[in-house]
Write a structure and sequence with these properties.
The chain is α+β, with helices and mostly antiparallel strands. Helix content is 47%, strand content 20%. The radius of gyration is 21 Å and the shape is globular.
């Protein structure tokens, strides 16, 4: 038989483990730049239709770590604060958020989405939104970073 105090220690340990796993409030914040970049660059390579406009092929985007950091942070902010907009509740825009992270490019565009499961699905969703599609297909943008938090996706496009 086990000593009585060993049983109490074991029960306390098991209770701690079960409680800590029940209260796991971690948020899955992920840099998804590589996988989203592949999907967007497929569109950019072939061209597509954005609304009624034919968009010709444009050069591929490249990854930018500051834009990725900005995208992950903003996806996290929208997820944890329960809002969904290109402009934060404090009034900051995508270019202001990117500049605050140290990005020095002249242009920043942003595409956001929620409730998609994969990079291919979210890019298809953006393609089906005329404004988001035109942003992804714009030759103005040459680099990109993307992030996901919970079910919120953000891609920041820059030059």
């Amino acid at each position: 038989m086990f000593p009585k105090h060993a049983v109490y220690i074991l029960l306390t340990f098991l209770l701690f483990i079960s409680c800590s796993s029940d209260n796991d409030d971690t948020i899955d914040d992920t840099d998804v730049t590589d996988s989203v970049l592949i999907e967007i660059n497929k569109l950019r390579a072939t061209g597509c239709k954005c609304g009624t406009d034919d968009m010709p092929p444009v050069p591929a985007l490249v990854s930018n770590s500051l834009l990725a950091k900005t995208a992950v942070n903003y996806a996290h902010e929208m997820n944890t604060r329960n809002f969904f907009s290109h402009i934060s509740p404090e009034g900051t825009s995508p270019i202001q958020r990117a500049a605050a992270a140290g990005y020095t490019g002249k242009y920043v565009g942003e595409v956001i989405a929620r409730n998609y499961s994969t990079p291919a699905e979210v890019v298809t969703g953006w393609k089906n939104s005329e404004d988001h599609c035109k942003a992804m297909m714009s030759s103005t943008y040459v680099e990109m970073g993307a992030g996901k938090s919970g079910n919120i996706w953000v891609a920041n496009l820059g030059q």
